[in-house]
Amino acid sequence: MNTKLRLIILSFLQFFIWGSWLITIGAYWFQTKQWSGTQFGAIFSTMGIASIFMPSLMGIVADKYVNAEKLYGILHILGGITLCTIPLVDDPGTFFWVILLNMIFYMPTLSLSIAVSFSVLKTQALDVVKDYPPIRVWGTIGFIVAMWTVSLLGIEKSASQFYVAAGAAFVLGLYSFTLPKCPPQSTNTSSQGLLEILGLKSFAILRDRKMLTFFLFALLLGAALQLTNAYGDTFLHDFDKTPAYRDTLTVKYPAIIMSISQISETLFILAIPFFLRRFGIKQVMLFSMIAWVLRFGLFAYGNPGEGLWMIILSCIVYGMAFDFFNISGSLFVETQTQPSIRASAQGLFMMMTNGFGAVLGSSLSGIIIQEYFTDASGAKDWQGIWLTFAAYALAIAVLFIIFFKHTHSTEPVEEAQPEGQLSVEQA
């Protein structure tokens, strides 16, 4: 089978698993289980908690001890088993721990999927910056297909969504063992110091001021990502309380409307190489932050009736908001690190975005929404919520302009040389 096709299958299933429940878990939580909003914030923080340590830890294992594709497969199989137990849980406290266990298995596979894909592409002498985005776009398509599957099957509010995710996890776990071998790149530990043996050498890149600033903003933007994942679908479901909107397609199939965001991703992913070469990492990241402001601001004033165009436009700009930071960021990390620490460096990037950032966003948003934007009857002031989020994204953009000192070079983005790192200007 063609190498690119094999990686396309990997990317498709990787995000099909997540798309089967990530956007619709809010409807299951609030409308089926009718649990509290504060507790829901804690549920979404599980991916952040897991991402604080698991991606880096598994990156170390892949860098030093176990083939990355095998470790990747084992984690997905364990995640599939955990997903099968979620529908059996009837207590929100227990639900938290089960979801956390699932996230412990799933979150490191995000960075491992990148590490495996990059490794396979390089063994085939392919260009990572040029060839990876068209492969990664199939992950977004997988997310879309999963959302449509759950929505059209009528299981957005049902526990069945977790069985769909589990089935995909088992398939990907077994498939991973058929992938080309991705052996550890650093196997000789006899002459290494303690930092190298523990796999903490990747943290040394934080000594570079630009890299440190990059990772700090990764944390802040990671918080923004969790806000839209946690509350977007629930926001649209809440319009069913308004008679004028109750029978609209937006309210009946909110996951399908939200999938426009992922459809938009497919276009923006393919545009990343051009934008990186034309504008550089600072401008591309700034575009992402401005897109987050628009994402939240348009939601604030949109509705399923005459304001539907704002909801749709919000979903379209999401593609730029998400991809122009996450995918470009992973490519940036790839070009700035040595081969022996790349898997763990990708884990560090994942730690900041989906780890500390997710905990920050989900935990604080749950408290803020419950305390300041939820009335005694449980109704939420969605306009106030989205405008607050928009103000947060705008503040990040302003701070980024001030503190991320970077001069873009007109040279095209290139792969890092084996013996060292590229200059930051080249990415």
TrEMBL record:
The chain crosses the membrane at residues 7-30, 42-62, 71-89, 95-116, 137-155, 161-179, 211-231, 251-272, 284-302, 308-327, 348-373, 385-404. Keywords: Cell membrane, Membrane, Transmembrane, Transmembrane helix, Transport. CDD domains: MFS_NHS. It is found in: Cell membrane. InterPro entries: MFS_dom (IPR020846), MFS_trans_sf (IPR036259), Nuc_H_symport (IPR004740). SUPFAM superfamilies: MFS general substrate transporter (SSF103473). Residues 210-427 form the Major facilitator superfamily (MFS) profile domain. One of its GO terms (cellular component) is plasma membrane. It comes from the Bacteria. Its main location: membrane. It is a multi-pass membrane protein. One of its GO terms (molecular function) is cytidine transmembrane transporter activity. PANTHER family: BLL5896 PROTEIN, NUCLEOSIDE PERMEASE NUPG-RELATED. NCBIfam families: 2A0110. This is Nucleoside permease. It comes from Hymenobacter glacialis.
